[in-house]
Give the backbone structure.
Amino acid sequence: LTTILGNLLTGNMSVTFEVEEIFRNEYNDFYLTANNVFTASEPAVDDEGAYLISSPNELVWLQELINSADRDPSIKVKLIKDIDLEGYHWTPMNYNGGESNMLTFDGQGHKVININITTDNPSYEKHAGFFSDIYHGVVKNLTIDNFTSNNTPHCVGGIVGVLYGSLENCNVNHVFMRQQNHDNQLVMNYNYGGMIGIWYAWGEEHAAIKNCHAVDVNLQTAGRCGGIVGFLHTEGTDYPRTFENCSVREVFLNDEVYPGFVGYDYWFQCTGSIAGYINTDEITFRNCSQSDCTYVFGYAKQENMVYLHTGDEGGEFTYKDPITGSVVKVGPEHKFYGYSAVRNLIYHEE
């Protein structure tokens, strides 16, 4: 995360580097000068009626198809090659289906590389990700490499911002999300996950995330953030949730509520390695792991922040608001999740 510009071909020069223990990347602008344009090109269709995506142009065609519909029909998608979107400003796909018409997106082991999302209107109503929303569907066998979302809105995930459905055999590597600069505009956006911003379980068959892994995830938000899922939500009849064969490592989670707006006593506990905030009755972590997780609570000045690491989960730590003076508890309740709104949560670790 260090760039040096200049002519180093000189004598009599020394260079000194000072690296803070917790390096906070204020802004990732690697793709902000993006100028690639991909012209939509209709893909081939296989015998199952699945769109076969083999190029950025065909992926943009799919994006336009999904985003042009008020109510999407059932759609099947298969990647047949890795897709590189370097230098392109991606518009998230918003799939709006139903229980009888759903999305099945099968990466078939391929990658979508270099997704860049930058918005000038990071409002509460907007969501972001490779998909902004999936109502209803399954994403499987997909890897997202290099996902950047600057000035992020509410509900952001490397794969999907809001999901009614499930993930299987998915990976995210090198994910960067940052809400907009509070110094310019105070908007508190939250619900960030390396893969999913908010996850709603849709039936028992879609109440599990299986074989999903996140590496090098950097989230800077106002709470409810996790290496895989930011917020496990419930709507109507809830279903027990399961994370099976899932892992995270090299996760940096910065819960940066603006001073004076700490608010609820539990707010600085809603940050977890796999899942941030749980609002469901029962959860199972089966064969899951986490390592090298850093949790940071506070805003702007390092001396006012609290830094925790893997192994600190469940400890007694507090944060003092530099403006109001209020003292609140901080830190995840468990090594796999931050906070459970259901105080009698039925919890299984297998």
Notes: The longest strand covers residues 131-152. Residues 161 and 197 are 5 Å apart (CA to CA). The mean pLDDT is 86.
